[in-house]
Design brief:
By secondary structure, the chain is mainly α. 75% of the residues lie in helices and 4% in strands. It contains twelve helices and three strands. Strands 1-3-2 form a three-stranded antiparallel beta sheet. α3 crosses α6. The model has no long low-confidence stretch (mean pLDDT 81).
Amino acid sequence: MADIISFLEALLPLSLTIFIAGGLGGIAAFLTTSKTASTQVRFGMAGFAIVGIIAAFTVPLFLSLLQSNILNEVKNGENSESYLIFGGFCILAGFSAKAFLSTLSDRVINELTNKMADSQQRAEVQIQELKDNLAYKLQKEEAAVADQKRPLSPKLSQTGRSLSDLEKTVLSALGDLAVRTIDGISQDCGITNDQTEDAIAKLIDRKLATHHLPFGTRRRLVSLTQDGLELAARLATGAIL
């Protein structure tokens, strides 16, 4: 309730400014219009004032299209001159209500049309990207299937068959990331660090893995060689070694 009251208190001065300034602009338009033309407007001066007030209430929309900060300055009370400037906009809108509303209407329609066109273009680009990604993924999967069907070299095939279950488990864990730590491999495989170290040492002896020492750190990282990556990919798909 308090939020609603504070909102209305902030909105009231702004609304009164629009109402009074728009009405004054409409009256000014009536006074400067020829008698013959003014009689064609229903309710005479009151009709001009009503149309002027309606036009003035669209000034915030007009300012937002211009990306002007005047409305924020008026609401925050940062600059007393902002009220005069805003009131002047409302008077001008009320004075030229018909032309102002027509111009603003065209501007809004153009903005919406452009945004719809941009949205459609962005959607088309995103759809095309999805199609390209799908085609690329399918191409990679087809290439991967072809690679799986391609027989391994006799030496690498023999090496793969000679691996123990523990070594195969560690090899598969290494294939998930580019580089891994002993702790990370141990956690993923559910084994001790000593078991991991022993398995990695054997993989290194078979030239399926290698150690890395990042500059400035004492951490030892492990990664697979090209042969190790090929065997890990075969193990991941259950292909025959």
